[in-house]
Amino acid sequence: MPPPGYRVSMGRIRVGTSGWAYASWRGDFYPKGLVQREELSYLAGRMSSIEINGSFYSLQRPSSYRTWRDAAPDDFVYAVKGSRFITHLERLRDVEEGLGRFFDSGARELGPKLGPVLWQLPASLSYDADLMGSFYGLLPTDVRHVVEFRHRSFCADEAFAQMREHGIGCVVSDSPGRWPMAEVVTSDVAYVRLHGHTELYASGYAARSLDRWARKCRRWSNDADVFVYFDNDARGRAPHDAVALIERLGRGGDE
């Protein structure tokens, strides 16, 4: 069983999956007969972090966050995906009330297990310095935040500088030619989302590709804490790829 996190140079590398409740994992990654209420604990015992993605679709209950907190080891960390009401419906405009509702819904119940909050932007949202500056200014400062943009206009020095000014992490989003990927560290968090090696949300990562990601994680850890989440869950590859990356980081060599 791997340690909860891998301390490498200045930062710590944590690896996990985006979500955990997938039918295709049952009888495959999850042992046959494992009851569903035990799946989170099983996964958390083999990863060092998990990205909570249900919070993107609807507000969760404080009791749910407490249950998730108690299901994981002491040194475990959750990332929480921000509400799509804020990012996709309101498109970051006039969201002060929405942000209040989101954080009041219970994420802080995770306590010391609360890691970065992920704000995934719609692909149709282009970079607007005033809009992004206003949004960044509303975000609570007691939580670390990262942004996954999907419009190429964000790949600009001005956008990265603005992220650095506000302490916002830039998500490294690996998708097979679907969205731009910027390998830029803009805060004390390097946040990686691996959506599939060759097929979005579906294909697994080859050994050589995992070797490359392990090397990148070590390099980024010189400047930041690194969080890596596999989102290629459609065919059940995510937990297996996460374990494979954990093994590479744990054994100390990736060539």
Tell me about this structure.
InterPro entries: DUF72 (IPR002763), UPF0759_sf (IPR036520). There is one protein chain. Helix content is 33%, strand content 20%. With 255 residues, the chain is of the alpha/beta class. It has a single domain, classed as Protein of unknown function UPF0759 (TIM Barrel), CATH 3.20.20. Helix 6 (129-138) links the parallel strand 5 (114-120) and strand 6. Helix 6 (129-138) packs parallel to helix 7 and helix 8 (207-220) crosses helix 9. The longest helix has 15 residues, at 237-251. It is globular and about 50 Å long.
Task: Compute the separation of the termini in Å.
Answer: 22 Å
CATH fold description: TIM Barrel
For the record, the CATH architecture stands as Alpha-Beta Barrel
Average residue pLDDT:
92
Helix proportion range: 25-40%
Query: What is the 3D form?
Result: globular
Structural class: alpha/beta
Number of discrete helical segments: 9
| Uncertain spans | none
Q: What proportion strand? A: 15-25%
- How do the strands line up in the largest sheet? 2-3-4-5-6-7-8-9
What is the CATH superfamily label?
Protein of unknown function UPF0759
Largest sheet descriptor: 8 strands, parallel, barrel
CATH top level class name: Alpha Beta
Order of helices and strands: EEHEHHEHHEHEHEEHEH
Number of strands: 9
Indicate the radius of gyration in whole angstroms.
Answer: 17 Å
